[in-house]
Amino acid sequence: MADHGPDKGIKRWLYTTNHKDIGTMYLIFSLVMFFIGGSMALVIRTELMQPGLQFVHPEFFNQMTTMHALIMVFGAVMPAFVGLANWMIPMMIGAPDMALPRMNNWSFWILPVAFGILLSTLFMPGGAPASGWTMYPPLVLQTGDAFPFLIFSVHLMGISSIMGAINIIVTILNMRAPDMWLLKMPMFVWTWLITAYLLIAVMPVLAGAVTMLLTDQFFGTSFFLAAGGGDPVMFQHIFWFFGHPEVYIMILPAFGVVSEIIPTFSRKPLFGHDSMVYAASCIAFLSFIVWAHHMFTVGMPLSGQLFFMFATMLIAVPTGVKIFNWIGTMWRGSLTFETPMLFALAFVFLFTIGGFSGVMLAMVPADIQYHDSYFVVAHFHYVLVPGSIFSLFAAAYYWLPKWTGHMYNETAGKLHFWLSTFFVNLTFFPMHFLGLAGMPRRIPDYSTQFADFNWMASVGAIGFGLSQLIFVYVLLTCKKGAKATDRVWEAPKGLEWTVPSPAPYHTFDTPPVKRVAQEAFE
Amino acid sequence: MSHADERYYVPHDSHWPIVGSIGLLFLMVGVSTWLNGADLGFWVMMGGVAVIVTMMIGWFGAVIGESQGGLYNAQVDKSFRMGMFWFIFSEVMFFCAFFGALFYARNMSIPWLGGESNNFFTNLLLWNGYESAWPTNGPGEVGGDFETMGPFGLPLINTAILLTSSVTVTIAHHALIAGQRKILSTFLALTFLLGFIFVYLQAVEYIHAYQDLNLKLTSGIYGSTFFMLTGFHGMHVTIGAIMLFIIWLRVVKGHFTPQSHFGFEAVAWYWHFVDVVWVGLYVFVYWM
Fold it and tell me: To probe the interface with A, which of B79, B112, B146, B230 has the most A CB atoms within 10 Å?
C-alpha cells in the first residue's frame, strides 16, 4: 500500500508502479534519444557545411534526416513531456500517483522496444528508412528490409502514447484533490489534459495510415495505388490529420510549462488563467481542421486551399492570446532571471518567430514559393528547438530542486542558456534566408551561392550540440548543490511546493485537506 | 460515495508490464522478419503471441484477484471505467482512418481519376477512357472483374445477429443489477454465442467472396476498403466474444455483485462499440 518503499536494484525500475520512478525513466530515456537524434543532426550539418558531397553517401544522408526526425519527435520531445506529466501532475493535483500505475509502467517500457527496433534498422540491408519521417508512398515503399520494422515501431510508439495519454486524462479527471475544480487546475495540468485528448484522437489514425502502407506493400491492397482506384495523396491527408494535431501535442505542454514558470519569477499570478484555458482548447479544436496546409503544392481544389489557409491563420488568434497573457503576467512584475525564467523568456521570443513564419507559410500563394525549402526547416525548428526543447530545459531547471532536493549549479545553467540561445539562432536563423533564396530541404548538396549561410548554420549546430553537454554536467553535479527548501523559489504557486524537497516516494497518502490546497492557490 | 475520507489506493509492483514488452519485442521482430521472407520469423512471432497471452492471463488474473479480495475502492473503479471509455474512443478513431479512406476514395480520388474537378488531363493522358464509378477496382482493373457482396442475405442476417446480441447483453446487465444470476448467465452465454456465430458467418461470407465473386483483398480500392474494414471489425468481434466468454466464466464462478461489476460493464461497452461500428459498416460498405 501507500507506505511501501521502492524495490532494490534493477527490479525497482523494471517493476515499478511509482509515478516518480516512471517519470525519471521517461526523462532519462528522452535525454538519451535527444543526444542520439542530435548526433544525426550533426551528421547532416557536417555534410552540409560546404557545397559538394564530403562525408556521407546521399542515401545515408536521407536516412539521417528521416531518423533524426522520428527520434526527436517520438523519442525525445514526446516522452520528455510525458515524463514531466508523470512527475508533476499527481503532485500538482494532490494525487498519490497516476490513476493506472501498472499501465503507466508498460507505456514506458514499450518505448525502449520501439526505439531499439527503429535504431536496429540502421544496420539492415538497404539501410534505415530514408523517405522522410512523413513516410509518403510510393517513396517509402522502396525502403529495404527496414520497412516492416519501421511500420511496427511506429505502431509501438502509438500504443505507448495512447496508454500514456489515457493514464494522464484519467488521472486529471478522477484523482484531483476534493476542492480542486477544473478551472482551478494549474496551466500545466490543463494543457496536458488537452494534449492527452489530442493524442488519443490522432495516434490511432497514424496507426491506421501505416497499417495501410503495410498492406499495400505486403498484401496487395490499393489504398495508395492510382491504378487500383486509390491515391498516394490520400496517405498525405490521413498522415497530416494525425500530423497537425501532433505538432500541438509537442507544443501545448510547453505552453503549460511556461505558464507555470513566468508567474513564479514575475511574482504575480498568471494573467488571464481562464482565457489561457480557452485559448489552448481553441488551438486543439483548430488543429483538427488545418491539416492540408502541409500539402498546398500537391494539388487540391481551390475551395480546399482557401479553407485550409483561413483556418490555419485563425490559429494565430488563440496563440496570440497566450503570448499576450505571458507578457501581461510580466507587466509590472518583480522579475528575476534565474535559468528557468531565462529559458521561458527565450521561449516566448523565439517561439513567436516560429509562429510568424508559420503565418507566412499558411498563405497559399506564398507557400507555393516556400514549400519544401529551408524556410520550412527554419520555421519548424524555431517552434521545436527554442520552443518545445527550451521549455523542457526550463521545466528541468525549475523542478530539478523539487526532484533531487538540491539546487543545480546556477552559473552552469546560465552558461547553458546563453550558449544554447546564441547557437540555436546561429543555426536556424540563416535557414530563413536560404529558403527564401530557394535552397531545397532534404538534399545533401547545394548550389555554391548558399555556401556562407550553410557554413554559419553548421557552426551553430555543432556549437549547440556541444552546449548541451553543460546540461549533462548540471545534472551530474546536482547532488553536490545546496539543500533545496520546500518552496525552492521565492513565490511559486501550486501544491507541489507544499511537500518536502525531494518529494517523498508517495506524495500524498490521503487527499490533501482543504487548507493545504487553499494556501497554495490564494 | 465520497472518496475524500478514504486512503488512496496504489497497487503494488508488477512484473507483467515488462513481460508484455518482451512479448511485443518478439512479436514485432518476428512478424517483420517473416514479412521480409524469413520463415523463422513466423515462429518468433508465435513465441511473442504466446508471451503476450501469458501476460494477459497473468495480469488480468492478478487484477481480478485483487478486485475479488476487496482491495479496490470507488475511485479505482472510476479510473478503470474512464480508462475503458478512452480506450474505446481510441479504437473509434482507428476505424475513422479506414472509413476516411473509404470516403476519400469514393468522393475524391475516383471521380478525379475519371476527370472530374480540374483533372481532365489526368484522365485523358494517364487513364484514358476510365469512367468513375463505385464499386471499382480502379482504372488499372487491379485484381480483375469482381462482383460485390449485396446488402441482403448474409450481411443482413449478421446485422440482425449483432443487434440482437446487443439486446441480450443489456438484458444480462439488468439481470446482474437485479441479482437474477440465472437470467444473467443465460443471456450472457447467448451473447457470446451470437458473437461467435457472427464470426463464423463472416468467414462463410469471405469464402463466398473469394471463391464465387472473385472479390479479394487485392481487388483494387473496393476490395481493400471492404476487407480491411470488415476484417478489422471481425477481429474486434472475435476479441469481444472471447472477452464475453471470460466474463461468463466469471459469472458462473460467482463473480460480480449488483454494486461492483466493472469487468462486466467494460466488456458490454466494448460489445456495443463493435455493434455501432457494424451499423456504420453495413450502411456505408454493404448498402450505399
Answer: B79
Nearest by Cα to A161 from A245, A65, A234: A245
Residues in chain B: 288
Phi, psi of A401 (to 5 degrees): -60, -35
Q: What are phi and psi of A183, to 5 degrees?
A: -75, 0
User: Radius of gyration over alpha carbons of chain A, in Å?
Assistant: 23
3-state helix, strand, coil in chain B (%, to 5): 75, 0, 25
DSSP state of A182: G
- Helix (H/G/I), strand (E/B), else coil: A314: helix
Any idea what DSSP says for residue A438?
T
Instruction: Indicate the pLDDT class of residue A332, thresholds 50, 70 and 90.
Output: very high
pLDDT digits (tens, 9 = 90+) for A460-497: 999 999 999 999 999 999 999 999 999 999 989 899 99
CA-based Rg of chain B, rounded to a whole angstrom? Answer: 23
Which among B87, B97, B142 is the nearest to A166, CB-wise? B87
Q: Is the pLDDT of residue B2 over 50?
A: no
Report the residue from A101, A222, A238 with minimal CB separation from B10: A101
In Å, how far is A469's CA from the nearest CA of chain B? 31
Q: Which of A1, A145, A228 sits opposite B220 (nearest CB)?
A: A228
Are A113 and A162 in contact by the 8 Å Cβ rule? The answer is no
Q: Are A323 and A352 in contact (CB under 8 A)?
A: yes
Across the interface, whether the CB atoms of A226 and B113 are under 8 A apart is answered yes
Query: Measured between CB atoms, which of B113, B218, B227 is closest to A229?
Result: B113
B169 contacts B176 by C-beta, under 8 angstroms: no
Quick one: how many helices (H) and strands (E) in chain B? 9, 0
Terminal alpha carbon distance of chain B:
49
pLDDT in tens, B241-257: 999 999 999 999 999 99
Place of cell 533531487: A404
Q: Which of B88, B148, B80 is nearest to B276 (CA)?
A: B88
* Grid-cell match 508488477, residue found: B14
Is A107 catalytic? The answer is: no
* B128 near A CB under 8 A: no
A246 is catalytic: yes
Cα–Cα distance between A210 and A215 in angstroms, integer?
Answer: 9
**Closest residue, chain B, to A200 (C-alpha):** B90
Please list, in sequence order, all residues whose beta carbon lies within 8 angstroms of the beta carbon of residue B229, skipping any fewer than 6 positions away. Answer: B95, B98, B99, B102, B281, B285
% of residues, chain A, pLDDT over 70: 97
SS (H, E, C) B108-143: HHHHHHCCCCCCHHHHHHHCCCCCCCCCCCCCCCCC
For residue A113, list chain B residues with Cβ-Cβ distance below 8 A.
21, 24-25, 28
Q: What is the model's pLDDT at position B210? A: 96
Please name the helix (run of DSSP H) or strand (run of DSSP E) that holds residue B183, with its range, or none.
helix B181-208
The count of residues in chain A is 522
The confidence band for A520, taking pLDDT boundaries of 50, 70 and 90, is low
What average pLDDT is seen over chain B?
94
Let me know: does A443 contact A393? Beta carbons within 8 Å.
no
pLDDT per residue as tens digits for the range A370-399: 999 999 999 999 999 999 999 999 999 999
For residue range B71-106, what is the model confidence (pLDDT) as tens digits?
A: 888 889 999 999 999 999 999 999 999 999 999 999
In the stretch 228-287 of chain B, residues with CB closer than 8 A to chain A read: 228
Cβ-Cβ contacts under 8 Å, B148 against chain A: none
A80 vs A69: CA distance, rounded Å: 15
Residue of chain B nearest A513, judged by CA positions: B4
pTM, to two decimals: 0.95
Gap from B172 CA to chain A (nearest CA, Å): 28
**What is the phi-psi region of residue A304: left when phi exceeds 0, alpha when psi lies from -120 to 50, beta otherwise?**
alpha
**What are A517's three cell numbers?**
490546497
